[in-house]
Amino acid sequence: MTTQSATTQGQSEAKTGETLLSVRGMKMYFPVTSGLFVQRKVADVRAVDGISFDVKKGETLGLVGESGCGKSTTGRAILQLHRPTEGSVNFDGTELTELKGAGLRRFRRRMQMIFQDPFSSLNPRMSVAQIISEPLAIHGLYKGAERRDRLDYILNAVGLNPTYARRYPHEFSGGQRQRIGIGRALAVEPDFIVCDEPVSALDVSIQAQVVNLLEDLQSQFDLTYLFIAHDLSVVKHISDRIAVMYLGHIVELAEADELYLNPTHAYTRALLSAIPIPDPIVERERERIILEGDVPSPLNPPKGCVFRTRCTKKDQCKCSDTVPVLEEVEPGHWVANCPCCMTK
């Protein structure tokens, strides 16, 4: 699969590769209210705070960052499961934030989601056949014998025996349940799938199987992925490009190999230094970057550069008032332009 160069808000589109999804200045704030009888808004949780990126047709864009940085909220806001507070989400030439009702429902057939926890994302009272057939019924796809044939085809595609169709979720292992979730997403023939940490709840021995399955399905069905995860080794294996997210902001975006070989933002370097290396000599001699303090609350994020409170050069930071914007430091390699965070 060919990797494509990135684009950001206000900057020119990449010259190669057709854009399927374009996000510009997207914000997702959740109101915090107070009052016993009369509820009034007192603050906002800034889960996503003005991010911009593109996803090209047929590629996998990895979205990484520690827990609470806004990764899952980003995926849900793209699919309009959360309505963005501000910004644009353009899918294949259509502005999703302007769609409602039946119009949005039609587009949801082209955009699906694989959820993190296969234990809670499947209805325990529904059989496998009912779980996978439900989206087909909602969108009026395949009927009678055709629907049964489609069910068998999907089960075979995700590596499950079609005879399992009458079984219930509790009869399966975690990896098999996630395959059922993947089958449900594939049933309606989508173009784009948000994979929301699809392997984080699985045993390590099963994670590789599911990741390899996702890669095979991408090739077979010409799929485009937004792959959300916090395991950087998994993201490197499956992604063409990777966006690094911190406290609702994208701080670095580059092709996967470039990001791992030449991390430029201080937060990216700290994340990569936490990946264990099986060679004890290399592990002992390499630099470990330990971030100070805790992640600030999205209720009251730092002004300017959101990473400056944990940066090793925070005393020299000059971005206390201005939010750094992404700039291209190398072809296809974009970094939030805080001089202190970009200094190696």
The largest β sheet comes out as: 8 strands, mixed
How does the overall form come out from the CA principal axes?
Answer: globular
Pairing-aware structural class of the strands and helices?
A: alpha/beta
The DSSP helix count reads 11
Q: In which order are the strands of the major sheet placed?
A: 6-7-8-3-9-10-12-11
Give an overview in words:
This protein is an alpha/beta fold and 344 residues long. Helix content is 30%, strand content 24%. It has helices spanning 71-78, 101-108, 128-138, 145-157, 174-186, 204-221, 232-238, 256-261, 266-273, 280-285, 339-342, and strands spanning 19-34, 40-56, 60-64, 86-91, 94-95, 111-114, 192-196, 224-229, 241-246, 249-255, 326-330, 333-336. Strand 4 (86-91) and strand 5 form a beta hairpin. Helix 3 (128-138) runs parallel beside helix 5 (174-186) and helix 5 runs parallel beside helix 6. The two termini are 31 Å apart.
Keywords:
344 residues, 4-stranded antiparallel β-sheet, alpha/beta
What is the strand and helix layout of this fold?
Blueprint (H helix, E strand, L loop, with lengths): L18 E16 L5 E17 L3 E5 L6 H8 L7 E6 L2 E2 L5 H8 L2 E4 L13 H11 L6 H13 L16 H13 L5 E5 L7 H18 L2 E6 L2 H7 L2 E6 L2 E7 H6 L4 H8 L6 H6 L40 E5 L2 E4 L2 H4 L2
Parallel strand pairs: 3-8, 3-9, 6-7, 7-8
Antiparallel strand pairs: 1-2, 1-4, 4-5, 9-10, 10-12, 11-12
Helix pairs in contact: 3-5, 5-6
